[in-house]
Specification:
Blueprint (H helix, E strand, L loop, with lengths): L2 H33 L18 H7 L2 H7 L4 H13 L7 E5 L6 H11 L4 E6 L2 H10 L7 E5 L12 E7 L7 H14 E12 L5 H13 L13 H8 L2 E8 L4 E8 L2
Parallel strand pairs: 1-2, 1-4, 2-3, 4-5
Antiparallel strand pairs: 5-7, 6-7
Helix pairs in contact: 4-5, 7-9
Bound molecules: S-adenosylmethionine.
């Protein structure tokens, strides 16, 4: 092989390895270290530093990077939620976004809700820095959005108060016992007939993708694998009762959007 080709291949490999190492250190690696300290018992102990440290938040939150992490399906997933919101009657109602997320999901969802006539949009996150960062992306909607520090698994919001609740890739990051709790809370806060939009990973149909995905979860996000079987969110919602659910999968089944309507 030519020297320039070897150098090129080596550089690409080095870049991939350092990116992987960076993400490991600011996600799972940090949680492993935290597990060894006394800091491991708070209700925020499962949250990665990339969601709590403002420098890291700003470093990572670039649309191309975030889209690449979701295998360039990000925009399609957000579009499905936005189109669901556009079909709902949100006039004078409240829309909740349970936890912030990187990329343009927040501006797109808030825009759809406001255009649809929602009176207020509430964004809840357990980490204050995430809320501050979200606020900086939503200057166009000031006066319409409330930012509240709250825990998705034990929310301070009142019962049956919101017409729609968007949960974008939160569940796979929660410890297993809290996954069901977050779904129950989502149900408690929705008004009858209200909709929960849940974006998440899903068990891929193609074995190659399944194998790669399995390695990804084992290395970076071990709490996510349970969504494939024991903690499949659709099963959890259906077992809870009181929901009518519809699931759409994307990219050979690697991602899913569940639209769950709370029965009247
Ligand atoms: C929803 S996930 C988003 C992951 C996804 N990779 C992304 O950004 O596109 C990360 C967010 O969830 C928040 N979070 C984690 N646990 C939470 C909890 N129990 N209650 C509320 N927010 C939580 C984190 O603070 C962070 O802002």
């Amino acid at each position: 092989m030519e020297t320039w080709m070897m150098n090129g291949a080596f550089t690409v490999l080095l870049l991939l390895a350092s990116t992987g190492l960076f993400f490991f250190v600011v996600t799972r690696g940090a949680l492993l270290m935290r597990g060894l300290s006394s800091d491991s018992n708070s209700d925020k102990s499962h949250v990665y530093p990339i969601y709590s440290n403002m420098r890291l938040i700003k470093l990572v939150d670039f649309q191309p990077v975030i889209s690449a992490i979701l295998l360039f399906q990000y925009s399609r997933l957000v579009s499905k939620i936005v189109s669901g919101l556009k079909q709902s009657d949100l006039r004078d109602k409240k829309v909740l976004i349970t936890s912030c997320a990187f990329g343009n999901v927040l501006p797109r969802v808030v825009n759809a809700a406001v255009q649809g006539g929602a009176e207020r949009v509430v964004i809840a996150d357990i980490i204050r820095n995430e809320l501050l960062h979200a606020k900086s992306k939503l200057a166009d909607f000031s006066g319409k959005v409330d930012f509240i520090e709250d825990n998705a698994t034990a929310m301070k919001q009142t019962e049956s108060d919101v017409a729609a609740n968007v949960m974008f890739f939160l569940l796979h990051e929660l410890p297993h016992d809290l996954k069901g709790q977050a779904l129950r809370e989502a149900g408690r806060m929705l008004a009858p007939g209200g909709k929960l939009y849940l974006a998440e990973f899903h068990r891929p149909e193609l074995w190659v993708l399944r194998a790669l995905s399995w390695v990804y979860f084992k290395v970076f996000e071990p709490l996510g694998l349970a969504l494939w079987d024991t903690h499949d969110p659709l099963d959890c919602l259906e077992n809870m009762g009181g929901w009518v659910c519809e699931r759409t999968t994307y990219f050979f089944g690697n991602f899913q959007i569940i639209t769950a309507t709370k029965q009247e």
